[in-house]
Amino acid sequence: MDKFSTTMKQIACPVCGNDEFEQLFSKQNEIFSCCNVCTFILINPPPKLEAITATYDEDYSQMYIRKADKKLKRCSGWVARVQKRFITSGRWLDVGCSAGFVVRAAADRGFEAHGVEVESAAIHYGREALQLENLRCGFLEEQGYPDSYFDVISLYDVIEHVPNLNRLIAEVGRILNPRGVVEIRTPNVDHWLTPRDLSTWKEVKPSEHLYYFSFTTLKTLLENHGFKFRYKRFMLKSALNVYFEKPTTPTK
Length: 252
Ligand SMILES: [Zn+2]
Description:
The mean pLDDT is 92. Strand 2 (30-35) and strand 3 (41-43) form a beta hairpin. It contains six helices and eleven strands. Helix content is 27%, strand content 25%. It is an alpha/beta fold. A seven-stranded mixed sheet has the order 6-5-4-7-8-11-10. Zinc ion binds next to loops.
């Protein structure tokens, strides 16, 4: 029985498919639930699509211009990390690329770099100020990139925002080259800095952050789509940074 009232319908757990949840707390009329089987935490029932996309707006004209140099340098470090450990060249796709700092950094370090982003003001900024051509506006699943097209796909602070998690990961799997690498960064619900009372965690954002991963739930989700875990970075802040590989022959 529901502890909190809502008009939307509950969804099955995107990680394990179970449909029984413990309701943890509610914030701004949204219910934060924990899957009884795999302990995945999510807003369930999910917020309406309009509420989710309304959180995507940001002011790119001022904040981004001010911090551009610093952002580019930081993104260059992320790309260098992938090059050192996994893949040095080829095609890179940054999903949820915002103004395209990762795309710029990947291009500067020798990749054919692409980006996709739902916020059109960010794309506009990236094309003008960062001189990027391969930026597309919209959801990844709408883009129709060819099969096995990319060697690296990055999702930095994106996976917790998307309306349909399994559709996104399936699409990443389709367009990633065998032996290609996907890098995911998202808040870590199991980190020692994450408060036990999750309702007080700064990452708990109704309509904006829909899913709250632990390493285990993230790994399970990716394995469900045939990915193989490769590497997990040690993080001082409450975030996960994990690399997965697409096997040369699908496991299922
Ligand atoms: Zn579950």
